[in-house]
Amino acid sequence: METVNLSLAEAYQLALRVLTHNGFSAAHARAMVANVCGGERDGCASHGLYRLLGCVHTLRAGKVSPDALPRLEDKAPAVVRADAGGAFSLLALEQALPLLVEKTRRCGIAALAINHCVHFSALWADIEPLTEQGLVALACTPSHAWVAPAGGTRPLFGTNPIAFGWPRASQPPFIFDMATSAAARGEIELHRRAGKALPPGWGIDGAGRPSTDAAAVLDGAMLTFGGHKGSALAAMVELIAGPLIGDMTSQESLEYDAGAGGLPMGGELIIALDPWRFLGDETAQHLARAEALFSGMQAQGARLPGERRYQARPVSEAQGVNIPRALYEDIVALGQ
Questions:
Q1: Beta strand pairing call for 79-83 and 109-118
Q2: Catalytic status, residue 187
Q3: Known catalytic residue: 291?
Q4: In this predicted model, what pLDDT tens digit does every residue of 262-310 receive, in sequence order?
Q5: Is 231 one of the annotated active-site residues of the chain?
């Protein structure tokens, strides 16, 4: 496959030009560009520059605000709400994080609910800033109803990702970010664009039959990972990042979309915990015990979640990123 190499600065300017040309405000464009370029830099193609296509399509379909300003609400000693006003989630997150950190320091645990937002980004990027503050973090969000529950044949759940972050002294944090579906929706889209077959177990066609054809799965239903276990986790995400925070389930998000093909509308829940508030003067001692766990994993040849991202980061900073030429041309066309 023919590729185009871009320095990170070139990728940033390209993405910024596309988003501002299509009408996103400077504040929203800056937050979105930082996110997609961060994904591309870290080797996460499904959440990198490719996401610009969906962002622009969602705007043109009238399903996202390009300039709504977030409204923060101090709901309780340990609760923050950020109403994104129908815009993408990232600016609301950026503006709410300082208050979330402050409340977590004071209470030991605090939660941020981002409401009325359109979500496209990887969750690891949402919680990495919290681990940089020495906090433990958990995040989740529903999406569109693309995924069948275990034992079912029709879409009901979203891909419903869950991310968890643990701070580490002088080392990159331990962060996993996983869809509760067998694969992220973006991965299936990339397989479709490349004409590649899917691994077995990722989805079913419209008749409920197992399929490795990406287009058939996109028209049928994705599957959860781990059968009933992934299905139960997907249902949990629907509940705690939907009705609990007064926002949409994945089925409601798809109904709101009304066939426009836009990105999911709904909410995101982020929970942060301060180890010092739990442990006090014993914090360093117990965090060192966590390092023994990580060392034990690596001693067996296991890869820590997120490890490849942090290995890819300095390489991309030095050598730039390679994206398929077809994708590059599609992105450039959006800015013309």
A1: parallel
A2: yes
A3: no
A4: 999 999 999 999 999 999 999 999 999 999 999 999 999 999 999 999 9
A5: no
